[in-house]
Design brief:
Layout: H1 5-18, E1 23-31, E2 34-41, E3 44-51, E4 58-61, H2 74-83, E5 87-92, E6 99-107, E7 113-121, E8 128-133, E9 138-141, H3 178-186, H4 192-199, H5 205-215, H6 228-246, E10 253-256, E11 262-266, E12 278-281, H7 285-305, H8 307-332, H9 337-349, E13 360-365, E14 370-375, H10 382-423, H11 430-442, E15 463-466, E16 472-475, H12 479-489, E17 495-499, E18 507-510, H13 518-530, E19 540-546, E20 567-571, E21 579-580
Length: 581
């Protein structure tokens, strides 16, 4: 759900309560479209998040830590230059729109007091963060919008900031009489549910549905079929809701289903959700948004940053699958090679029985104990006819051996690419993604690129679990990590687990000289199945052996090992019985 006008009004109310009068301490830009502003006020510190991410734009106080680039982007540097140490005067929401303006006071280079505006527009893919002077002249924005991008308005330095084009909607906080309210809705030739959010700013479909529910009206009823009593009930409900907002009487909450999955969030009670749904109330709308977006925001970021990798892998896998199909068809054509060898042998064995100009040879096939007929070229001698069949045999034999090697290489490449593809399912941070990108570069799937603004990334670490009886279990997130985990971290008497003939993670159980319990065996095997391509299956085969039996062939791709001494078990993929450290 996107932030509607009511949620934004709650955010503005909360920010005015907590950060108005505060001083800006630090400014970071962890992502191209995201700012973190550190604010001190009344001996408390707050972190204000402003995000113009297309599918999750938002503004709220946050407690989620963010990693910052070594070299701050230009927009961040400009903000630091102008407003570090600045005082927050007020936070406003113009016309109940999905826009928040933060008015700031600071001293310029001459020591004069100046006012600036930091504006965030929360409008899907058109979201933006804009820095303006008091007279609305744009100093810069986190996204530049030229006339080539939008014919409606430019958002560029030195242009005058204007609000996005209005859709002739009404501010719901304006004093609207019952008569005007009914007349406006009556003019809408649509169902009442749509009429409400088409008419008023900041009213989302969810809030429109809630108003209808509280008024006891079917939201799918056309406005032309509503009675005066129906309109009166809707107006009374609408007015009551707006009165709560004007008083700042909000109820931040998240709606979850039976499995605890987040479905919606709001700043008012959503009584239209009942039955199998539960409402969890929060003291702060910022806590709601922090909780709601914490995981999905990171997932969205990783998905966005891995899109090029996914495309490269998919393209190369498709190429390999097509190549393998062609190679298998070609090798099938070589299956008949032995019959040409036999024909050459039979011609040689009966060479004195062949007369000049014969078109065929009838001979006894001592391989099948049957008579057979062999075609001959009348313009060739018997020995030349035999050589023709031998040459055909040798050509097919060479083709067979070459194709056998090519098929082996193609299958190996497919296995490698599928293992990388599987690793993408378990990426949690940019450090994990960078290892995958490095592997693709090393094998020529991606070109090496120098990134001047690259972040100082921490070293990606494998997953660390504790078995239910206390054994340490480590799971590699990608091929490079699998190699390091198995070949460097694990010792000779540690146990190694991997799904049988299925791409997946290497799993290491540290024994520290102890004998591994049956429980630890089963839980480690279940983890190996869980972090594999077969994680949606049941009864997955998992091989396991001591680390000292694992060998890595010279020149093999990352993550590839061989072993000849092992055990196997069938398990259900799961991470439920172990504890993530």
């Amino acid at each position: 759900m996107a932030l509607d006008g009511i949620v934004i009004s709650n955010i503005v109310y909360e920010l005015n309560q907590l950060i108005t009068g505060g001083r800006i301490d630090k400014i970071y830009q962890p992502e191209n479209d995201e700012l973190i502003i550190s604010i001190r006020n009344n001996k408390n510190s707050y972190k204000l998040l402003l995000s113009a991410l297309a599918n999750m734009p938002r503004i709220h106080l946050t407690e989620v830590p963010k990693k910052n680039p070594l070299n701050p982007p230009n927009f961040c540097m400009l903000l630091r230059k102008h407003i570090i140490g600045g005082k927050i005067l007020k936070v406003i929401q113009p016309n109940f729109e999905r826009i928040v303006e933060i008015h700031l006071e600071h001293l310029n280079e001459l020591g004069d007091l100046c006012v600036k505006k930091l504006i965030i527009e929360i409008m899907g893919r058109h979201s933006n963060i804009i820095f303006c002077e008091e007279n609305d002249r744009i100093l810069d924005s986190i996204k530049h919008v030229s006339l080539n991008v939008s014919s409606v308005r430019e958002v560029l330095p030195n242009r005058i900031y204007t609000y996005p084009p209005a859709k002739n909607k009404i501010n719901p906080l304006d004093n609207i009489t019952s008569e005007d309210f009914i007349a406006i809705l009556n003019d809408k030739n649509t169902i009442i549910h749509k009429a409400l959010y088409f008419t008023f700013n900041g009213i989302s479909p969810v809030i429109s549905e809630e108003i209808c529910y509280r008024a006891g009206i079917n939201s799918s009823t056309p406005t032309s079929e509503l009675t005066d009593s129906d309109f009166t009930n809707i107006y009374t409900t609408f007015e009551s809701l707006m009165n709560l907002i004007e008083k700042g009487d909000y109820t931040p909450n998240i709606i979850t289903d039976e499995e605890g999955t987040y479905k919606e969030f709001s700043s008012i009670e959503l009584s239209s959700y009942g039955g199998d749904y539960e409402s969890i109330d929060y003291e702060s709308i910022s806590h709601v948004l922090d909780s709601y977006y914490a995981k999905s925001s990171n997932t969205s970021r990783i998905s966005q940053k891995s899109s090029d990798i996914k495309k490269v892998i998919a393209t190369n896998l498709e190429r390999c699958y097509k190549k393998l199909d062609l190679q298998l068809k070609q090798i099938k054509d070589t299956e008949s090679r032995d019959k040409y060898k036999i024909k050459g042998e039979l011609i040689t064995a009966n060479i004195y029985a062949i007369k000049e100009g014969d078109k065929e040879l009838k001979a006894f096939n001592y391989y099948t104990n049957e008579d057979t007929t062999i075609s001959l070229k009348p313009n060739l001698s018997p020995s030349e006819n035999a050589a023709k069949y031998y040459n055909r045999y040798n050509k097919l034999k060479r083709t067979f051996h070459a194709l056998t090697e090519h098929i082996k290489d193609t299958k190996s490449e497919i296995s490698h690419l599928e293992s990388i593809q599987n690793s993408l399912n378990f990426v949690e941070a940019e450090e994990d993604l960078q290892l995958i990108r490095t592997e693709l570069m090393e094998y020529g799937y991606l070109r090496f690129r120098k990134n001047k603004n690259k972040k100082a990334l921490q070293k990606s670490k494998p997953f660390h679990y504790k078995s239910s009886d206390g054994f340490d279990i480590y799971v590699g997130k990608n091929n490079l990590q699998n190699d390091e985990l198995t070949m460097k971290t694990a010792t000779a008497n540690d146990w190694w687990f991997h799904t049988k003939e299925v791409p997946g993670s290497h799993v290491i159980v540290k024994t520290n000289g102890r004998e591994l319990s049956d429980t630890a065996y089963e839980e480690a095997a279940a983890l190996a199945a869980y972090y594999s391509k077969a994680n949606n299956s049941t009864k997955v085969a998992v091989d396991y052996t001591l680390r000292k039996h694992i060998k890595k062939p010279a020149g093999s791709v990352p993550g590839y090992v061989i072993y000849h001494t092992n055990y196997s078990m069938y398990v259900n993929p799961s991470d439920e019985k172990v504890t993530l450290i």
